[in-house]
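Researcher: I'm preparing a figure for a lab meeting and need a structural model of a single chain. I don't have an experimental structure, so a prediction will have to do for now. The sequence is pasted below. Please return the structure as tokens so I can convert it later.
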Amino acid sequence: MATQVTATTTANARRSSSFLRIAIALQTLTIFLQAVSAGLLLTSSYGETLHSVGARVMYGATMLYVLAAVLAWKPGGGSPRPVWQASGFLVLASVQVVLGIAHVPSVHLPLGVLMFGLSVLALARR
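Model: Understood. Here is the structure written out token by token.
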């Protein structure tokens, strides 16, 4: 009986870890695509629309990261560290959205670069 519980717990932890890794990868990809759409914003007529839609998708990916971190932590009893990291990304994404709407590129652009670097680092650590 104990072996079966341990095997089930291990399988659930592995699944949660995979979901967390996928969520971080998706977040990293969407942040990268935001950089691409920012370049299009400067050079094409449809760039603003693409960047605006991309911002919503990136924010959704960040919320998915928070959900995946909570699911990886709570049932398995693992470290709450990924939850704190994901919550930090959600705060950064919120600040990024506010800065974008306010048209403050002097902070918006470097923060985007920082977010991409941190997301790649989080992905490499998983």
